[in-house]
Amino acid sequence: MSGKASYVDKHRVVVIGSGFGGLFATKALKRADVDVTIVARTTHHLFQPLLYQVATGILSEGEIAPATREVLRRQKNARVLLGDVTRIDLAAKEVVSTSPQGGTRTPYDTLVVAAGATQSYFGNDRFAEFAPGMKSIDEALELRGRIFGAFEMAELAEDPLEIDRWLTFVVVGAGPTGVEMAGQISELARRALTGNFRNIDPATARVVLLDAAPQVLGPFGDRLAEKATRQLNRIKVDVQLGAKVVDVDAQGIEVEGPDGRRRRIEASCKIWAAGVAASPLGAQLAEQTGAPLDRAGRITTEPDLTLPGHPEVFVVGDMLAGQPGVAQVAIQGGRYAAKTIRTRLKGKSAPASFAYKDKGSMATVSRFHAVASIGPVRFAGFLAWLAWLALHLFYIVGFKSRVTTLLHWTVSFGGRARSERTATLQQVFARRALEQLGSRPPG
Ligand SMILES: Cc1cc2nc3c(=O)[nH]c(=O)nc-3n(C[C@H](O)[C@H](O)[C@H](O)COP(=O)(O)OP(=O)(O)OC[C@H]3O[C@@H](n4cnc5c(N)ncnc54)[C@H](O)[C@@H]3O)c2cc1C
Fold first, then answer.
1. Which residue out of 63, 142, 180, 187 is catalytically annotated?
2. For the structural domain made of 125-274+367-436, what CATH number should be given?
3. In the predicted model, what is the mean pLDDT of residues 382-411?
4. Backbone angles phi and psi of 293, in degrees to 5
5. Pocket (CB within 6 angstroms of ligand 1)
6. Do 11-41+83-119+277-345 and 125-274+367-436 share a fold?
7. Tens of pLDDT along 345-393?
8. Mean pLDDT, to the nearest integer, of 98-113?
């Protein structure tokens, strides 16, 4: 260990993660008489719902991932520590993290664990090399390289079968992320890239959206699923349901239908938007407390989000069992934990249990078309798209990012341009390079 992060006499709150849960918990402690240390493995706060727009060249990574220290610069009681948390020692009340500078032990009086989730390949991790997920800026930029790179390779290829393979894009998982991704690739091919190539017509690209489930956007209900499917068909996305992925390689993907028959889709560019697994820190906490884990590795807490026998440790966001993996669960959980900390420090009794208020869900299908489910109200089309736009703009962190995002949306949705098409060779080959170095993609 190279160091021990120490604080003096104030109550020490350590927050793991700078995502929605971690950042909103930290901000809600702004006026509390505490010292907050936010430990995260990236230097930014990531707005995951817009990662697909980075991958498809609409937004820049900076717009959806502001530096955490910039966001917290005015919050004097908070400091940011770069580190990959490898261990939480509940007995010693310390968080152990590593960085290129070595190891750090950060002691706490109260701990908020908000380390989120990673992609799950349902036990087939080898698929990741051929079908990257979309959980981080690294992955979104790698996908950007693969998507735009596929059109470039098609332009160079001469064999028609090879051209078809480069111009076939397969998105696995027809939840909101998969639907948004498939819709955007289709619009990229049919609108944004018009006139850009000489040997190929990008509009002939085939975009396939696969899911083992019988309908798209399951949690949105039958009516919205039907509307979304119709719109996907309109923008020429080939929706294939009841199709379970059984193998993925560099050249394509193999799927099994409900009748057990297998078939192959030749495609160079595959994107994995199915399945999540909670941070492995959840398993560590379960081991130390006996709290149960669900199949996705999410932990069951007490009703007040603390661990059994450890009222000083909160778990919020995607690591929580029994709650949907959405931003609002993390935001509300982070704020609830902060409120409980503040109340306890005042010697008052804390709010007894966390109750998630469902504010609804939305997903864009294409330009000018989204689906929205808000309480009993379900609607689709242009109005839903406007509501989606306004909501996302509201939650993007920072005024500058809001302004530039709005500008990029105007350029991309009002016109045809994608201003963020740059993809370097390092991005395209980043995964392999990192694997050769023996390190895990950091961000
Ligand atoms: C592509 C995509 C699209 C989505 N779209 C929507 C949407 O439209 N609407 C919606 O409501 N939700 C959406 N979600 C889900 C939403 O983003 C998550 O529910 C939310 O981010 C969870 O917040 P969190 O704080 O629990 O975790 P995260 O936001 O994932 O944050 C986790 C943090 O922990 C850090 N971390 C992880 N492990 C460690 C470690 N060992 N050491 C140090 N730091 C660590 C990470 O770097 C990160 O800062 C989407 C998610 C994805 C991936």
1. 180
2. 3.50.50.100
3. 90
4. -110, 145
5. 16-22, 39-42, 48-49, 51, 84-85, 114-116, 134-135, 176-177, 279, 281, 317-318, 325-328, 330
6. yes
7. 999 887 889 999 998 999 999 999 999 999 889 999 999 999 999 999 9
8. 95
Q: Would you give the DSSP letter of residue 341?
A: H
Using the Cα atoms of residue 115, residue 118, residue 123 and residue 127 in order, give the sign of their dihedral. Answer: negative
What is residue 440's predicted lDDT score, i.e. its pLDDT? 47
Q: Which CATH superfamily is domain 11-41+83-119+277-345 in?
A: FAD/NAD(P)-binding domain (3.50.50.60)
* Burial degree of 317 (CB within 10 A; 0-12, 13-18, 19+): buried
Atom 36 (ligand 1): residue with closest C-alpha?
A: 115
- Res 8 pLDDT > 90: no
Specify whether 180 is catalytic: yes
Query: How is the chain split into domains, by residue range?
Result: 11-41+83-119+277-345, 125-274+367-436
Distance 291 CA to ligand 1 centre (A): 22
The pLDDT-based confidence of 443 (bands split at 50, 70, 90) is: very low
Tens-place pLDDT, residues 79-97: 999 999 999 999 999 999 9
Q: Report residue 242: phi and psi, to 5°.
A: 65, 25
How far CA 329 is from CA of 249, 268, 305, 321, 376, in Å, comes to 36, 36, 12, 11, 19
Task: For ligand 1, pick from 26, 37, 48, 332 the residue to mutate: most ligand atoms within 8 Å of CB.
Answer: 48
